[in-house]
# Entry
Amino acid sequence: MKLQKRADHRCFGGSQQVWSHESEATGCTMRFGLYLPPQAAGGRVPVLWWLSGLTCTEENFITKAGAQRVAAELGLALVTPDTSPRGITIAGDREAWDFGLGAGFYVDATRDPWAQHYRMRRYIVQELRALVQAEFPIDDARTAMSGHSMGGHGALTIALTAPEWVRSASAFAPIASPMRCPWGTKALTGYLGDDQASWAAYDTTALLQSRGWSGPPLLVDQGEADPFVDTQLRPDLLEQACAAAGVPLCLRRQAGYDHSYFFVSSFIEDHLRHHRAHL
Amino acid sequence: MKLQKRADHRCFGGSQQVWSHESEATGCTMRFGLYLPPQAAGGRVPVLWWLSGLTCTEENFITKAGAQRVAAELGLALVTPDTSPRGITIAGDREAWDFGLGAGFYVDATRDPWAQHYRMRRYIVQELRALVQAEFPIDDARTAMSGHSMGGHGALTIALTAPEWVRSASAFAPIASPMRCPWGTKALTGYLGDDQASWAAYDTTALLQSRGWSGPPLLVDQGEADPFVDTQLRPDLLEQACAAAGVPLCLRRQAGYDHSYFFVSSFIEDHLRHHRAHL
# Structure
């Protein structure tokens, strides 16, 4: 694993760290952020995983969301993975901001040339999960997951496919149905190919139908001034799918808010408190 | 003035904006951040000016400090100027990160080739102050000032030289005496020349001696793991100067904290509450 500490900053009495390690799942060196609250000095603490959106690295949430304050109060660790493999070059991986680098979409690619490295689902659900549990004072049995945009899609799809691991899930402006929006169809075609049957494992609305969700209500915030809401994010599809599957959804449409971290930071406290209450 | 809005994000019920304008003081287009809390919709609100440190622009504090949450609660506007002229080129202005671009040191340069543009003191105290008062719902009579590192030096020196404007002042890891540290002597020599008599107007410890301070206690946070504390920042000199001048100082040495915005964000709430209580 060769875990290396890249940064360590005291923050709200805890410690905001960045680590790197050699990843088997992605075949490259990956970085992730880890916030350990003060309570971690006394034993294992529950954890919120945060999956970031297009173009992000592990840094965006760490520096912009202001989550450490509440995490320190609640005794919650924060794990923030990167959004794609890094340090490798694949033809076409940096031609667009919505595909390739910074745009792994939390899928396991099956199509060449992506299949060798773009295995972000496996990276998170198997490799990084095990690493974090083994190396840090984190209670894997009390795991929540959230994310933003592409990362909201990632958080919801991982929770729905691994409910034995993720006990509570939420999202900010998630891509509700990648099978039915331009960002998603581009990514799923590129990483998985044209067979849409293989896409359903990565589509929140399809997973709600096929698997349901018996955890606590899904908390979703969506800015009403978000420029992507009608074309890419489609909270209406999420609402329909939850209603059809009988899954409780707390969808809050926030007037005036856009797609930025100014939106995320405004409501992150509610998400942390929601998760902590269910962990 | 040609004030142009460059960004506007809803944040904690208020609005985080970025504006640009043609500056007479610096002879170039300048940007500044403005957070208007929800209370600004109902009339003029008190304001905290934040002066940033070396290498920063108006963006760092906006995205990293997490101050909007408390500002929204307290009804406090936040004004965040840039740290130097921009969009011009002067030989030597980008050879070092501690001089020139991003390193205006909040002085009015008198030495060529800097004197024409590097007039950040005048820019803030006269031009931007008047602009903000004229164009936004801000109560100039209730102004506080804070800043980080070079910006902590800026906040304290401006408060000490303009106490009729700045009613409360604080700082994070300020450069206490630029006349007596490498960053400061380099900048003051470059912008003002070798005559140290001209430097004293930009040295907090000298100003404490010559002018004193009759406002509320100066609140200063200093991380004990800050790598610059002993060579550049010298809180000991600030303590001595305040004691000699009979100026109340609340200097908090924070164990384990470094020089980053993780440190600033951990304590910014205390500063906002301190200032609000005195405005």
Notes: Chain B touches chain A at residues 9-13, 16, 63-64, 66, 68-69, 223, 225, 254, 256-258, 260-263, 265-266 (CB under 8 Å).
